[in-house]
């Protein structure tokens, strides 16, 4: 069935980024900066939520979970990309490549489901405020954070087990900046019909189910908010949900951007760099969207910084 060279590859070449040395230096600094901001910002959110008992409500616990998934998903590919930029090598071993793919699927699926869970939480809070504590009891919150983990690992395992059956023979050059499922399939010289079918079915359900929950939640939320009589209450509800909605739009914008402007069809450096930035921006801006617009979160962060580093940061006159 397979013709030509049958030797399987032991490593892949990630063509991802610019080959010009000058550009590589700038990119290294840019990506390192973005990565540090992502880790620090999301790390602060996790610390603020975990250390503040007043923030132990479903909304903030889900937010901390999202921050954790954001740090993890950036960590699946940015450190490797930085090392490759610095060492001027583009190779990644077969095993690392499969591992990278596995975890990038896991965290993308978790992000997706957590956005759905957060929308559902706001829906209950705004549309059924009287029953909020009965509906969102700790047991359900636990389930809503554990199920995405279990489910995303099943999804990633399915894709990975199907992928490792494939033979790679002609080329090991990936026109991408990390080992992603779709470019790997394109590279294989085996028949990938089954893999593609599974991607379509699983991918659609993974995206459509949370998306439907988000859509219906926000329709109810917007209708409920418009019915509120007090302008102050209306503004408060809008500002919380506005930040959630911004993240949802960014996330689905990124997915659409990547699917409709696939990296491989635009071989120029600029397009690839744009795609990387796009993927890195959502996890990076999440903490800012939340903490800048949210009074409780702001207070908790300020308290955290004062308590932990207060001695060195506090002005002598205050
Ligand atoms: C994630 O959510 C669960 C349950 O809602 C909570 O117990 C846990 O502490 C959260 N994780 C983080 C990192 O805050």
TrEMBL record:
Transmembrane region(s): 26-51, 98-120, 140-168, 197-226, 238-260, 272-292
Residue stretches in coiled coil: none
**UniProt-annotated location(s):** Cell membrane
Alphabetic keyword roster: Cell membrane, G-protein coupled receptor, Membrane, Olfaction, Receptor, Sensory transduction, Transducer, Transmembrane, Transmembrane helix
Residues of the G-protein coupled receptors family 1 profile domain:
41-290
Query: Superkingdom of this entry's organism?
Result: Eukaryota
Q: Tell me, what's a Pfam family for it?
A: 7tm_4
Q: Which GO terms describe its cellular component?
A: plasma membrane
Which PROSITE patterns does UniProt cross-reference here? G_PROTEIN_RECEP_F1_1, G_PROTEIN_RECEP_F1_2
Q: Which family does it belong to?
A: Belongs to the G-protein coupled receptor 1 family.
Gene that encodes it: LOC101564293
Q: What is this protein called?
A: Olfactory receptor
| Gene Ontology MF term list | G protein-coupled receptor activity; olfactory receptor activity
Please report the organism this UniProt entry assigns to the protein: Octodon degus
- PANTHER family noted in UniProt: OLFACTORY RECEPTOR (PTHR48001)
Topology in membrane: Multi-pass membrane protein
């Amino acid at each position: 069935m397979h013709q030509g060279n049958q030797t399987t590859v032991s490593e892949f070449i990630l063509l991802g980024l610019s080959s010009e040395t000058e550009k590589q230096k700038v990119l290294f600094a840019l990506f390192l900066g973005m990565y540090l901001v992502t880790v620090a910002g999301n790390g602060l959110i996790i610390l603020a939520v975990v250390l503040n008992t007043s923030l132990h409500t479903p909304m903030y616990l889900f937010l901390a979970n999202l921050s954790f998934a954001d740090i993890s998903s950036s960590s699946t590919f940015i450190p490797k990309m930085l090392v490759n930029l610095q060492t001027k090598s583009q190779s990644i071993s077969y095993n690392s490549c499969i591992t990278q793919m596995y975890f990038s699927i896991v965290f993308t699926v978790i992000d997706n489901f957590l956005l759905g869970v957060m929308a559902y939480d706001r829906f209950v809070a705004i549309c059924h405020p009287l029953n909020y504590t009965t509906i969102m009891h700790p047991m359900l919150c636990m389930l809503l954070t554990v199920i995405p983990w279990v489910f995303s690992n099943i999804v990633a395992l399915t894709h990975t087990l199907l992928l490792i059956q494939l033979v790679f023979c002609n080329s090991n050059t990936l026109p991408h900046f990390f080992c992603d499922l779709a470019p790997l399939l394109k590279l294989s010289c085996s028949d990938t019909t089954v893999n593609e079918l599974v991607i379509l079915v699983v991918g659609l359900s993974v995206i459509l189910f949370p998306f439907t929950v988000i859509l219906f939640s926000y329709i109810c939320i917007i209708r409920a908010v418009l019915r509120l009589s007090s302008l102050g209450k209306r503004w408060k509800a809008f500002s919380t949900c506005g930040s959630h909605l911004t993240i949802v739009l960014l996330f689905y914008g990124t997915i659409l951007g990547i699917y409709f402007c696939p990296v491989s069809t635009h071989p120029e450096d600029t397009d690839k760099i744009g795609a990387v930035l796009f993927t890195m921006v959502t996890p990076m801006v999440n903490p800012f969207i939340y903490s800048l617009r949210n009074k409780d979160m702001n207070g908790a962060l300020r308290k955290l910084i004062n308590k932990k580093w207060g001695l060195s940061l506090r002005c002598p006159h205050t």
